[in-house]
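Predicting holo structure, S-adenosyl-L-homocysteine bound.
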Amino acid sequence: MNLFFSREFTATNSARVTGQEHLHLSRVLRLREGDLILINDLEGAVYNAVIHSIEKEATICTVKEKLRHFNEPQIPVILALAIMKNPGKMDWVIEKGTELGMSAFQPLLTVRTVPSSVKTARLRNLAETAVKQCLRSIVPTIHEALKLDQALLSVGKHRLLACHEGADAACTPERLIFDTRPVAVFVGPEGGFAEEEIKVFREHRADIVSLGPRRLRGETAAVAVLTRVIAQIESQCPVRIVPASAHTDSERINQL
Ligand code: SAH
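Done. Tokens:
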């Protein structure tokens, strides 16, 4: 199954896939009339659709069904990660974090962060590409960088988790019980969070979380905590039911 982005829906259950998405569909993947695709409207919904016709400028599709929260964790999980010197590592985190189900990415400036610019437009493109790969409804929001105190204000109503090597070894993601609040997970810079920052996290009632006895690099910690937290969320609240057709690879429908 392949997913394409389109905002061009008509009242008659028809959608047009245009531009790069149309070229990808028709020239690269060489899909044909009758093939089943998913259309993501970039507003949080995914639709089951059948290709009706492939024209020069656009692929015309018949929309079959709207799939709400398709492949999304029950609770949004924001990753707040201290900016990394090497932009390639941020790219990697966006790609893997999107595949794992993060809902948003907040670059962080902390006491020990070496300030460097974050190419948010580039990260947004990477998030879109990863959504196509992993078939999600939501393209994670990429926020502009914030200082830790501002970032904490922006997630005032969230359940807060701060990853810290000095955390109680028993406080692992698997020990946490999640409620309906969205979750914000914080991962520090190369030098770690400063003690005063850990104090601020505690004042905000964050859980100070251990990812095990080994010292992980920031990007590893980010992927590890997202994997473990989202697995917990998905096991505590079963994933919503999605029509079987969305998961099959039966690409062709005979009658249109
Ligand atoms: N304090 C470090 C390394 C920090 S690693 C040093 O002295 O060099 C970067 C970030 O990854 C940390 O701030 C923390 O958020 C996370 N992290 C790394 N290993 C971790 C672990 N075992 N448990 C929890 N968080 C960890």
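The radius of gyration is 20 Å.
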